[in-house]
Each structure stands twice: as C-alpha cells, then as structure tokens.
Design a protein that fits this description.
mainly alpha
C-alpha cells in the first residue's frame, strides 16, 4: 500500500519538464519617438515645407509605353489595320469638301495645304476618285454605244474601261503620295502622309469636267482639254508643296519639277486611253 506522503517537485529539476514562465521585461518608449496618425502637414510632405501642395496620388510614369519602345511601335503598326484609325479623316462637312474642291480649281492660290494642315480628310479624295471611275466608264460606254447604233454595228460592253480606270485613279491617288512621302522622309523634310493623300486626291477633281468635255468629237479640242486639266492639276500640287519642300536644300527644285511632270504625264495617259471617244 502506497504511502500518503507526496514529494514536492516545485524546486526540483526534472528531465523533460517545462521551465516556469516568468513575466516579460517591460519596455518604455520615450516621447520623442512616438508618431501620430494621421501625420501632420509638415510630416506628410515629402521634401517640402509645411503648407505646400500634397504629392500626387498616382504616378503614371510606368503605366504609359516608353516612346520608341517595341510595344509602342507594334501598337502603332497594328493601328494601320483598324477602321477607327481612319474614322476622323471621314468626319467632314459637305461645305468643307466643296470649299476644298473650289480651291483645287484655283491652282495659283497655293494656300490649300495650309488650310488643310490641321484637318486633312480622305472623304473628298475617295469620292473624287470613285466619281472619276464612274464618269470615265459611263461616258465612254454611252458614247461608244451611240456610235455603234448610228453605224448599225453590233455593240459589246467593254469591262476593261472600269478596271483600267479604277486601277489608274486609285493607284495614282495612293501610291504616288506614298512614294513622295518616302522621298521627303529621305531628305528629312517633315511631311504627313494623310496631307499628301488629301492634296493629290483633290488635285484629280479637274479631270471630271475634262472627261465630260471629251465627248466633243474634235481631236484638237480633246488635246487642249487634257493639256489644260493636266496643267491645272500639276500647278495645284507643285505650288502647294513648293514652300514645304524648299527645306530639302538644293534638290527641292528637282522634286517639285518631278511632281509637276508626273501630273502632266497623268493627263497624257488619260488623253491616250480615255479621251479617245469617237462618234
């Protein structure tokens, strides 16, 4: 039988026993090290004196792509295939289009580029080229039809007039300004591609009445009409680009002369292939 006496282990060290927990030492903070929240105006201002404006909430320096980076260049390249990129250039009033057409009929003014520098459009050039294709095809088809009927000959519609006219006018209005844009970039002349497209598009308007007058069955008259239209169109483009291209140095004369001769070559091509209607 076990004894009723128990041994106290309060002051004994037992293997595996948990040491007694003592009270943690107390720490005291001195008053100068305490901080208050929210901080005062002087404490919350970074590098400034009290009463100045607070720092900006968000710094968007890294939220924007760096200029010239691969990301920004890739985005700008993809924007070429987006319809929203070209939407502002078709947002124009009819009155403005008519005013620009009127300016294209006064080639010696030379103020068209300055007027359209802030808001060039592609609406007018598109419909001018489309109207030229329609006029060339319709007038040529109608006159040749009447000619065959008067001679009691069989008449067949020539679809090549439409395709040739579309390739000529659309191709000229797009690729010629694009080539000129690259040339000006090579000579470090600041230029805008949309402005060049706008200028060349409106320069073709004078060929619409010229095509309408080509139904007159006089060969000399047709040559005169083609020559006058070509001269007006070439003068309109050359004078509007002359002051701008003069920054290219001594070669600006050659560039302007090439622009003028290329417009004249267009009028000769129109005379040979479109102004040959016979009745």
């Amino acid at each position: 039988m076990m004894s009723g006496h128990y041994t106290s282990i309060e002051n004994q060290k037992v293997s595996g026993s948990v040491p007694a927990v003592t009270d943690p030492p107390s720490f005291k903070f001195s008053d100068p090290n305490l901080q208050t929240f929210p901080p005062s105006a002087a404490q919350g201002n970074i590098g400034g004196s009290g009463g100045s404006r607070p720092p900006p909430i968000v710094d968007d320096t890294f939220s924007k792509p760096v200029s010239g980076s691969d990301e920004s260049q890739q985005l700008s390249w993809f924007q070429v295939f987006s319809l929203s990129t070209y939407k502002p250039y078709f947002d124009i009033d009819t009155i403005d289009v008519l005013d620009r057409i009127k300016d294209s009929l006064y080639p010696f003014n030379g103020a068209f580029k300055e007027k359209t520098s802030s808001n060039p459009d592609l609406y007018g050039p598109f419909w001018i080229c489309t109207t030229l294709i329609f006029v060339a095809a319709s007038i040529g088809t109608f006159v040749t039809y009447i000619a065959h009927k008067l001679k009691h000959q069989e008449w067949n519609y020539d679809i090549n007039v439409v395709t040739w006219s579309a390739g000529l006018f659309y191709g000229y209005a797009i690729f010629v300004p694009l080539c000129l844009y690259l040339i000006l970039k090579y000579f470090s002349v600041p230029s805008g591609l949309v402005q060049l497209l706008c200028l060349y598009g409106y320069s073709l308007f004078v060929f619409i009445p010229a095509l309408c007058l080509s139904v007159v069955p006089w060969e000399i008259f047709r040559w005169v009409i083609a020559g006058v239209a070509g001269f007006m169109s070439a003068t309109f483009v050359a004078l509007n680009l002359r002051a701008h291209i003069m920054s290219a140095g001594e070669r600006w004369v050659l560039i302007v002369a090439g622009i003028f001769l290329l417009q004249l070559a267009l009028s000769v091509a129109l005379k040979i292939y479109l102004f040959k209607i016979t009745v």
